Amino acid sequence: MPPATVAPLLSVRGLTKHFPVRRGLLQRVTGAVKAVDDVSFDVARGETLALVGESGCGKTTTGRALLRLVEPTRGSVHFGGTDILALKGEALRRMRRHMQIVFQDPYGSLNPRMTVGEAIREGLLVHRIAEGHEADRRVARLLEEVGLRAEYASRLPHEFSGGQRQRVGIARALAVEPSFIVCDEPVSALDVSVQAQVVNLLRDLQRDRGLSYLFIAHDLAVVSHMADRVAVMYLGRIVELAPRAALFAGARMPYTKALLSAVPVPVPGAVRRRMLLQGDPPSPVDPPPGCVFHPRCPHPAKDAACTRVVPPLEEKAPGHFVACIKEPPTSVPSP
Fold it and tell me: Does 305 have pLDDT greater than 60?
């Protein structure tokens, strides 16, 4: 990881989450699903780090593990200098106020029996931020901040569209005044026109409130408008990490190149040359030895070393990290 001149808001090192596989009448553990395997990254204050990759690569599990919505198997997560994984009980509850999540499904993430006002007010009550008329005023202000009318507080979730429900979910996350939000594919279930509105809302909120985001997505077109830096995951590992412009202009990992080649060109009649990968992603229960991508890698210099050596995430160019032993560093001329 790059040396930071300013301490990052969030620092993740070696984050790992393995889910046990149980079989037989006695449900003995016979293996593990390696959903997240030795993931490390930083998120600066006010930064958006996008976490991208195909379905099942471990993006959502990474976001939930660093919030301890699922308990990590090992690793460290420091938020503002505090070790999140060492917190328990009341200390962990207080920390949750500063780290929130916006879920992917705007239909399933809201309690159908609670009005949207009650859903937003719940965090205020749990963290003893406000109650009574003051809580009502905060709920009204939050609804207006996300583009909804204050009188909508008395309505139930089924009375709203998908985009409106996602705005309610954002308001609920903002209610406790966090500084960091995990956005778990917040626009993937929405229509394209609504996606743009929600993305713009998230950017405006970041500007006005100084928020930091871990933006989990598989739509690289959305990521290109939202992210400051992009981390690419494959089979539970980060295989490339770079500033957004550097990644889109010059991806170095073959897997990243294949992802970018699949992004539609927004020009009528234009055709982008697709980079097709052979085979299917390996199972996270039995990942391949060495580089996890080597069974599908089209790199011309690939050899037997790729099947034995686990490539570290190394800086190949300033701020550009790649997990590939066959990818040489870019020479930088001396000033």
Answer: yes
Contacts for 333 with CB less than 8 Å, ≥ 6 apart:
none
Helix and strand numbers, DSSP H then E, in the chain: 9, 12
Residue carrying the six token digits 């205020």: 124
- Give the C-alpha separation, 19 to 32, whole Å: 5
Residue 307 DSSP class: G
* Residue whose token pair is 């009649």: 269
pTM value is 0.91
The more confidently predicted of residues 267 and 56 is: 56
How remote is the C-alpha of 115 from its chain's centroid?
Answer: 28
Dist. CA 325–CA 314, nearest whole Å: 9
pLDDT of 265 higher than 80: no
Supply the pLDDT for residue 324. Answer: 93
Whole-angstrom distance, CA of residue 316 vs CA of residue 320: 6
Single-letter amino acid, residue 308: R
Query: How many other CB atoms sit within 10 Å of the CB of residue 169?
Result: 25
Residues 6 or more apart whose CB falls under 8 angstroms from that of 57 comprise 233, 234, 235, 236, 281
* Packing angle, helices 132-145 and 116-126, rounded to 10: 120
Q: Structure tokens of 47?
A: 């930064």
DSSP state of 38: E
Single-letter amino acid, residue 52: V
Cα-based distances in Å from 196 to 159, 182, 205, 245: 22, 18, 14, 20
